[in-house]
Amino acid sequence: MTHQPTTADLQQRLLADLTVLARPRHARWDELGLMAVRSFLKEELSALGALEEHHFQSGSDAGVNLILKLPGRNPQLKPLLIGAHYDGPLQSIGADDNASGVSALLELARRWSKEPPNRPVWLVAFDQEEWGMLGSAALAADLKASRQKLKLMVSLEMLAYTAEQQDYPLEAMRRIFGERGDFIALIANTGSSLLLPSLAKAMGAHVKTKVLPVPNGGKALPDVRLSDHSPFWDQGYNALMVSDTSFMRNPNYHQMSDTIDTLDLAFFASVVEGLDQAFKGI
Q1: Residue 98, preceding bond cis, omega within 30 degrees?
Q2: What sign does the CA torsion over 218, 185, 41, 43 have?
Q3: If phi over 0 gives left and psi between -120 and 50 gives alpha, with beta otherwise, what is residue 252?
Q4: Could you tell me which residues come within 8 angstroms of residue 17 by beta carbon, excluding any fewer than 6 positions away?
Q5: What share of the chain in percent tops pLDDT 70?
Q6: Residues 6+ apart with CB under 8 A from 193
Q7: For range 22-49, the mean pLDDT
């Protein structure tokens, strides 16, 4: 499947990050891999500003979220939080899931550290999403307890796979969204759905974009809750997920076959350009 070419430089930067990140990296299955990826992210993000480590404990499981806070041109505005989980699935290379999301996070961090966005942005690399969204649940709970307000939370969850066929949890969605897996999806709770038209328009200038507002925290559609946005929904925050629709499209989901060579780098680069355009001015 071909897409409009984007800059070769961007594709090369994304590929360079993917090459480091796409490796076994699960807290129980490959702890050394997870530590290596965490170390890489610390080095890359701390070069762009003061990096915070948010340590959390959930039962016998402990982890570290990495948080880079960029000031924005209007520091008095409520911050935008954009996150992606850096741990990987059991028994998987995890290129799309979620080395793609983390590579996009790094690219946005590098751009926005040089050209500040409209409002403060917190860029968060979440730990232990694959173990039950532990990192995002811990951060969402801590932010709620401290009464921290957010403009919006955005989860970057699998951004780089295209396919000729697209599956859906409801057949009615096929009539709305189409047969081909050639789009990026914005899945938002009711509170943030007012932002969807403008975000979709900005992203749509770079990549085909579909939107799905879901009521009641997505509880009637459990498939749309499977990322780091859902703990923020549950804490009352406006949040959305940006995704290539995961296992509804990608047959390599949670398999060792989720490798870099299966990804559509031109599509991925278009998604990143769209993210930059849509969220830097929000």
Answers
A1: yes
A2: negative
A3: alpha
A4: 99, 102, 103, 106, 107
A5: 98
A6: 211, 213
A7: 96
